[in-house]
């Protein structure tokens, strides 16, 4: 499969180059030149298959031409070592729990898949330089990426996080790992971290000296595997006879997750309608209502993984629909919630239905609850993180202590290591060049 750039000013590229480079030379996002469509009989047969088997079918359709079948199966099976169960909440509303992975975030799926695929390409290529993955994080992305890439040969990961602005649990998840993971504690905000990463990608000298790549959802190998669990959810709903009229709601920040859902839909997955749920960072809602897209600086909310003012995957959505606003707004609706509304949703659903939402999933649930589903329709929202990852916030809302799962507790036992850096690019660049020997790690 070839991939083209959404900006159409760079040559198309093969999967290996796309995964190693992340972004096209013209700064566009890579898109597959065609989206394979699965036969109806294949879709109908999903209900009899395991998550690994389902993901194998989807992965084969996209990546089968670029990687040996056995190697691809190994990557898929090694990524999906956990389930993404569909859980009934109330009436016709269901939660797709994506938080059963190693760091309890949906990003585990894409991060692990990308790490394995990149590892496979590097091994085959025998490149004489390591690949450096840079990732800016406000919490969740850093932990999923660091854990996904842990121990993969010839790849080094640098996690840039804002000093004092990530929760203690999240900080432990990427500062205690060691090996090929380096945590950089930046004296600044998340936006400063992201600005450093962006500056690094366009710095000529740095790119001549070292191979840099991104593990954010701009990378095809990070966002596309997220379509696996949409198919897995469909299979589960099909088993209970609830799959025919399904409305899927996605709590969104950079829109990688929603884009993966739109890809699944194009591949033939029967989804009746999509809903994008936002917090107060609602540029996409505005676009759906007006047809005008106006990026803005992000606003801090209690659903902080969705605090994005200029979602990177918007370019992919526009490209998929050839800028057809009518088509986009017919398939997708938007809802937005304030912190107060998120809090009251968490409280209500916990006390009325005994289901504990996290602040992101709460936006998804509320959007479905407000969207007037018909009795024959099923509402499915993506529950993107375990509520314990936002312990302090959630406990205050429900006025009750919550338990931290053993998986999370394990991270808190390790010893924290991080390197303190300022927010100026020159200092960061000097660290990258001088602080680390760029020859192949023996
Ligand atoms: C990353 C994240 C989101 C947003 O996902 P996008 O793909 O960026 O839209 C939502 N919820 C949680 C918990 C996240 O970590």
Architecture overview:
With 442 residues, the protein is an alpha/beta fold. Helix content is 43%, strand content 16%. It has helices at residues 15-21, 40-45, 51-63, 69-79, 107-125, 140-149, 168-175, 190-202, 204-209, 220-223, 228-239, 256-266, 283-290, 314-320, 325-331, 339-353, 359-369, 391-398, 406-411, 425-434, and strands at residues 2-5, 13-14, 30-32, 86-90, 93-97, 131-136, 155-162, 181-186, 211-214, 246-251, 273-278, 332-336, 378-383, 419-421. The strands form three sheets. Strands 4-5-13-10-11-12 form a six-stranded mixed beta sheet, sandwiched between helices. Strands 9-6-7-8-14 form a five-stranded parallel beta sheet, sandwiched between helices. The chain has a three-stranded antiparallel beta sheet with strand order 2-1-3. It is globular, with a radius of gyration of 21 Å. It binds pyridoxal-5'-phosphate. The site of pyridoxal-5'-phosphate (PLP) has 16 residues, from helix 12.
Question: How do you describe this structure in short?
Answer:
With 442 residues, this protein is an alpha/beta fold. 43% of the residues lie in helices and 16% in strands.
Q: Key features?
A:
20 helices, 6-stranded mixed sheet, alpha/beta, Rossmann fold, 442 residues, 43% helix, 16% strand, binds pyridoxal-5'-phosphate, 5-stranded parallel sheet, disordered C terminus, 2 domains
The mean pLDDT is: 94
Shape: globular
**Distance between termini?**
33 Å
Domains, number: 2
Strand count: 14
Helix count, DSSP H or I runs of 4 or more residues: 20
Highest CATH level, the class of the largest domain = Alpha Beta
Range of helix content: 40-55%
Computed Rg: 21 Å
Q: What is the fold-level CATH name, i.e. the topology of the largest domain? A: Rossmann fold
In the CATH hierarchy, what is the architecture of the largest domain at level 2?
Answer: 3-Layer(aba) Sandwich
Biggest sheet layout: 6 strands, mixed
Lateral arrangement of strands in the main beta sheet:
4-5-13-10-11-12
Beta-strand residue percentage: 15-25%
Ligand kinds? pyridoxal-5'-phosphate
Regions with little confidence, pLDDT below 50 for 5+ residues: 438-442
Which structural class should the secondary elements be placed in?
Answer: alpha/beta
């Amino acid at each position: 499969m070839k991939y083209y750039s959404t900006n159409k000013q760079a040559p198309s590229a093969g999967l290996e180059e796309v995964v190693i480079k992340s972004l096209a030379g013209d700064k566009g996002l890579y898109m597959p030149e065609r989206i394979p469509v699965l036969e109806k009989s294949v879709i109908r047969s999903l209900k009899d298959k395991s998550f690994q088997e389902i993901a194998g079918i989807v992965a084969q359709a996209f990546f089968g031409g670029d990687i040996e079948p056995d190697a691809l199966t190994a990557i898929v099976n090694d990524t999906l070592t956990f389930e993404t169960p569909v859980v009934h909440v109330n009436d016709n509303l269901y939660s797709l729990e994506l938080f059963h992975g190693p760091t309890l975030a949906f990003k585990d799926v894409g991060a692990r898949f990308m790490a394995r695929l990149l590892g496979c390409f590097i091994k085959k290529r025998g490149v004489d330089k390591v690949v450096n993955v840079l990732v800016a994080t406000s919490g969740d992305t850093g932990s999923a990426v660091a854990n996904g890439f842990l121990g993969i040969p010839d790849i080094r990961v640098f996690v840039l996080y804002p000093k004092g602005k990530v929760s203690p649990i999240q900080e432990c998840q990427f500062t205690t790992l060691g090996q090929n993971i380096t945590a950089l504690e930046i004296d600044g905000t998340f936006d400063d971290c992201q600005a450093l990463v962006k500056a690094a990608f366009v710095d000529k000298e740095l790119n001549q000296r070292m191979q840099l790549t991104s593990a954010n959802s701009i990378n095809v190998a990070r966002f596309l595997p997220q379509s696996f669990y949409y198919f897995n959810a469909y299979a589960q709903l099909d088993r209970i006879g609830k799959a025919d009229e399904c409305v899927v709601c996605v709590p969104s920040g950079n829109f990688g997750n929603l884009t993966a859902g739109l890809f699944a839909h194009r591949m033939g997955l029967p989804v009746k309608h999509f809903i994008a749920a936002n917090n107060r960072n609602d540029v996409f809602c505005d676009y759906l209502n007006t047809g005008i897209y106006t990026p803005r600086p992000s606003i801090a909310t209690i659903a902080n993984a969705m605090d994005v003012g200029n979602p990177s995957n918007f370019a992919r959505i526009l490209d998929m629909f050839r800028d057809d606003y009518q088509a986009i707004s017919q398939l997708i609706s938007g809802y937005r919630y304030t912190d107060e509304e998120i809090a009251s949703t968490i409280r209500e659903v916990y006390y009325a239905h005994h289901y504990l939402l996290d602040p992101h999933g709460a936006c998804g649930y509320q959007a479905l609850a407000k969207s007037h589903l018909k009795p024959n329709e099923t509402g499915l929202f993506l529950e993107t993180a375990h509520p314990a990852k936002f312990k302090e916030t959630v406990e205050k809302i429900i006025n009750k202590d919550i338990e931290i799962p053993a998986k999370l507790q394990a991270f808190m036992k390790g010893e924290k290591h991080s390197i303190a850096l300022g927010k100026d690019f020159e200092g960061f660049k000097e660290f990258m060049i001088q602080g680390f020997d760029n020859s192949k790690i023996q």
